Amino acid sequence: MKTSWFRYLTIVLLCLPVLVPIGVVLFSLTTGESESWSHLRDNLLIEYIANTFSLAILVGSQTLIIGVGCAWLTTAFSFPGMRFFSWALVLPLAVPAYIAGYVYAELFEYAGPLQTVVRQVLFEGSSQINLINIRSIWGASFVISMVLFPYVYLLTRISFQKQSSVLRSAASSLGAGTTGSFFKLILPLSRPAIAGGTALVLMETMADYGVVEHFGVPTFTTGIFRTWYGMGDQNAALQLSACLFLLVAILVTAEQFFVRGSTFNPTSDFKQSKPTQITGFSSWMATLACSLPLLFGFIVPLSYLLNHALQENFADIQNVLSQYMINSIQVASIGAAACVGASLWLAYTNRAQKRLLILSGIKLSTLGYALPGVILAIGLLVPLTSVDHLLAEPISNILDTKPKLWLTGSILALVAVYFARFLTVSYNSIEGGMAQLDTKFDLAASTLGATTAKILSNIHFPLLSGSLMTGFLLVFIDITKELPATLILRPFNFETLSTRIYRFASDERLSEASVECLILIALGLVLTSLLISSTKNK
């Protein structure tokens, strides 16, 4: 009985980092209206909603076309480069959206190299026309789409690969051609995967700050930052966060609606279809269709940053690696370790007691990944600040020091937000590994008198070493790339690789942060290699 109550208590505690911010931002809607909120509601709220929805629709439609199209090409047809593209199209995930945004802003702006060359060639350098307005909602949607389409591509491709050739042969025997079977059979069977990938893209789009802020697109995230820092109105920023949360909730509900009632293709008679060989013009068009997303999503940003890095003076590289990288590694290691430890306990608790309360608690505690970092950051900062003010004087008197912020002035607040947002990532990895373990191990150990701690340390930990390491790396890399939450909650004079990149890019000095950008991309490639290897094993 004691063990059961302890498990319930721990699950409740693990839910708090998610439920507290949600409660804080929703409660703000019941408070009175300030002048700032009245101004925002009357003049800017509609613009924030329209731009956020427009950006989501543009990115969603682009990633849907690119992701589904490339997944279909690399699974249904054989053409030059098909095997290469089947895994290389995942590589854009290694590039954080805000880094790609900084690169394309420099490339396509009026004084950038591309427009300069075009004006010299076509107008002999005399034109004053801005040929490409990259700093717009269209430019932002293009950049975000180029680095996020792999979410749709990856999930859709796995779904296509799992579809039995028997059904496709049956469709063909009934007179359905390649196009007809694709729209009438393949796509409907893959609806859950496509909806899941698109939902991930839309949530990342709504949570984006680096790209939309740099491109001057007023969305909810930019509005929250401006209200928080520019107007200094905490409550108005919370109310904007509440509106953003409601939009995300609508998105999650819609995704569940599209998935509900859908069935995946049965695999009892599974036999993967052999790709159809295409030649001539069609084959080269397929190669081109797969080349362009890879070019714009990975090759161009990487090449541009490498060129900048080679031109830079590396005299301060030691400073970069010893200061900012250590800060990033520090918070990422602590956050990843906390997520892995909690995920292991949640997965074991779910395995030991499959009860509705436990399942509900796990669902709530792993909800954070669906929430933008800015909501979690602001929602946690308010109560943590209140606790700080309560503890400041008593702790200072005991330790005989000057009053200071013990929670929000340290990396604890950062770790709390990282934990809330990325617990889902580690839990999915560890829970999947634990599901493959035979319960006989647990029963045998319990019969011999082993405690829960011994079962976890002596049985599950060694057997789940691969899943634990995967979960740790995935969370570690996600934390190093996180920008909005880090900007809000980082202690004074505490900079990570992502915040340093943001600071230099905001000052139009991307070249000085090119090394840091390449380091983040290299870390992202670790995540990408894990995804590629996992898809090959499926």
Tell me what the structure shows.
With 538 residues, the protein is mostly helical. The chain has two domains: 40-267 and 285-308, MetI-like (MetI-like fold, Orthogonal Bundle), CATH 1.10.3720.10; 312-538, MetI-like (MetI-like fold), CATH 1.10.3720. The chain has 23 helices and two strands. The protein has helices spanning 2-27, 35-76, 82-88, 97-108, 113-123, 137-162, 165-173, 178-189, 191-207, 210-214, 220-231, 234-259, 280-311, 317-352, 356-365, 373-399, 412-434, 440-447, 452-463, 465-481, 484-489, 497-506, 514-537, and strands at 77-78, 276-277. Strands 1-2 form a two-stranded parallel sheet. The radius of gyration is 25 Å and the shape is globular. Residues 264-270 have low confidence and may be disordered.
Task: Report on the biggest sheet.
Answer: 2 strands, parallel
Shape: globular
Biggest sheet, strands in spatial order?
1-2
* Strand percent estimate: under 5%
CATH topology descriptor of the largest domain: MetI-like fold
Average predicted confidence as pLDDT:
82
Number of strands: 2
Which spans have pLDDT < 50 for at least 5 consecutive residues? Answer: 264-270
Order of helices and strands: HHEHHHHHHHHHHEHHHHHHHHHHH
Which percent bin holds the helix content? over 70%
> What oligomeric state best describes the polypeptide chains here?
single chain
Structural class: mainly alpha
Please give the structural blueprint.
Layout: H1 2-27, H2 35-76, E1 77-78, H3 82-88, H4 97-108, H5 113-123, H6 137-162, H7 165-173, H8 178-189, H9 191-207, H10 210-214, H11 220-231, H12 234-259, E2 276-277, H13 280-311, H14 317-352, H15 356-365, H16 373-399, H17 412-434, H18 440-447, H19 452-463, H20 465-481, H21 484-489, H22 497-506, H23 514-537
Parallel strand pairs: 1-2
